[in-house]
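Postdoc handover notes: sequence design on the structure in folder B. Input tokens:
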């Protein structure tokens, strides 16, 4: 690796409802983040461990965010990580509103008070080629057993509406659906149980990660899918294994609100970094 890691590499550990992240602040210098670096840091026994790695760099707005999954693959969007970093940048700058750029596009984040941070994840992608799917079809009910709904939130999602979300063997089911041939870029998988017109119990299998306690983009996709199918209104609470997010599909995009946690700061040692190839 070309970067100078002779003094180690500082990082922050954060989470949104147990959906956890390692965050590297690359503002003011160049950090060549590779898939192997992401995999090394992401290993929960030999590294630090995370669901996603997030890189903060200079951007057209307040900052640019780049995301890696635990398997080293990239993701254009990561809602909970965006909220966590937005809270960090707001605390740092004193601003109550930020413009963040990602590979998904421009995202606006706002401080809602009482420790709640919101981000507008943008408009959902609802056509087959935007998700993307392998061929033309109606995204509302896919030709897969269970008739799931496909939604793009900068990454692909496949939402199954079930009677009991806790009864699903998500580790097996999610792994199978992630690699379904209808999804050329693989997919995030959600199993969602409608509790009320404004409440959904949802569990998540994340592409390139596995079962996670929460997922922001998955929560947005599930809320959009439920509203499109007439199962809920456009404003819902998503109850996840790690806590609750509020999702509001407004004319300007899908807004996601919830708490965040900055757990600790650390330094990856030169010895550890030298072992990553």
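Designed sequence:
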């Amino acid at each position: 690796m070309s970067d100078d890691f002779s003094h180690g590499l500082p990082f922050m550990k954060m989470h949104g409802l147990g959906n956890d992240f390692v965050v590297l602040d690359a503002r003011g210098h160049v950090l060549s983040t590779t898939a192997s670096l992401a995999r090394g840091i992401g290993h929960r026994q030999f590294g630090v461990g995370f669901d996603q790695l997030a890189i903060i760099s200079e951007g057209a707005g307040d900052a640019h965010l780049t995301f890696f999954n635990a398997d080293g693959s990239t993701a254009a969007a990561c809602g909970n990580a965006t909220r966590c970093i937005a809270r960090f940048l707001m605390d740092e700058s004193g601003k109550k509103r930020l413009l963040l750029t990602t590979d998904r596009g421009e995202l606006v984040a706002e401080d809602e008070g009482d420790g709640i941070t919101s981000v507008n994840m943008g408009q959902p992608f609802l056509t087959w080629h935007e998700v993307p799917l392998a061929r033309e079809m109606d995204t509302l009910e896919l030709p897969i057993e269970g008739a799931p709904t496909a939604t793009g939130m900068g990454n692909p999602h496949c939402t199954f509406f079930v009677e009991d979300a806790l009864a699903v063997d998500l580790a097996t089911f999610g792994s199978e659906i992630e690699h379904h041939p209808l999804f050329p870029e693989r997919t995030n998988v959600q199993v969602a149980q409608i509790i009320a017109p404004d409440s959904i119990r949802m569990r998540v299998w994340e592409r390139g990660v596995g079962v996670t306690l929460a997922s922001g983009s998955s929560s947005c996709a599930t809320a959009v899918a439920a509203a499109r199918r007439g199962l809920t209104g456009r404003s819902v609470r998503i109850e996840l294994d790690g806590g609750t997010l509020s999702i509001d599909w407004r004319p300007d995009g899908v807004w996601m609100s919830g708490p965040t946690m900055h757990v600790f700061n650390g330094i990856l040692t030169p010895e550890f970094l030298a072992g990553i190839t």
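Context for whoever picks this up: The radius of gyration is 18 Å. Don't rerun without checking with the PI first.
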